[in-house]
Amino acid sequence: MHPLPIGGCSPPPQWQIIVDNPGNNTTTSYQFTTSGNATPLATMGPTQHLSGNYGIWYDGDTGDFFVADSSGTYANTLNRYNLSCLEPNGQSGCPDQTLSGSNTNLNQPMAATENYGQMLPQGDEPAYTLNVGGTEAVIAQLENQAGNATPLYTIKGTNTGMGNGHGLAVDSDTSSPNFGGIFVDSVSTPKVMMWLPSAQFPNPTPNQILNLAPHKTISGSLTGITDPVGMYVDIDGYLYVVNQSTNKVLVFAPNASGNVAPVNTITTGLNHPYGVAVDQNLIVWVTNDGDNSLRSFTNGHGGSAVKSTIVGSNTGLSSPANLDVRISR
Q: 131: domain CATH number?
């Protein structure tokens, strides 16, 4: 517990949840205790370089966060922000840096994340975007890269099996058999695919194109995967898949592969869900673009129940998409 500053005043609030809202080109922040028709802790908008923003992630080791713009004024851009950009009155001078230009190959980035399980020779981890324009691809860049930089490597091609994907996630659990694994979903052929850099491409050459089949695939009638969008891997290596058309979040154990049933299914209160994130207490946070809400659920590994709901005209939620939570990784 942090002591109060001299004078007895409470410290300013800090955001714990960040949400992309492509419906109005904003990103909003909240605390874990927020509920009801509450105003966001802070809001960024087009003046902070946002347009068609679906992809977002929080960097748990540097404390920065990143937003990918897929369309509009700032299309095909990955923005980096410091923590204060989504604290009250902290939006001036944001973002800190941008990655954009023809050399980056960014093309409608719909999701973004980072791989804490693959330290590269350059001394940093790769940041990923899922790009759905043209030939679908996962593009890797150094997380601190800016300007018109070429990719570290790119996963794309006919062998990958990608098709109309929306979700992107990485397993950061060091005890997981999938540590460092890159998860991508496909709607064209409903499934989730995983590439394992440590086994498949431990030392990629600069700007290499990796036309590789996945290390493993989760698909089939038992999985319940028919219309996957957002994905997340929690601190224990469990994979969460939002299946939008059936209003479900499907939870798979770390060893899941092939045509396997989820170990947990979250259904209550979901309305055309899109994004999912899980905090260190296994509280599951889900955005719903059907009613512009953010709902939380207890115990992501089983027996989940609704814990809280943020919904209403004051919340700033507008077709909410991907989100992330402020936890250490």
A: 2.130.10.10
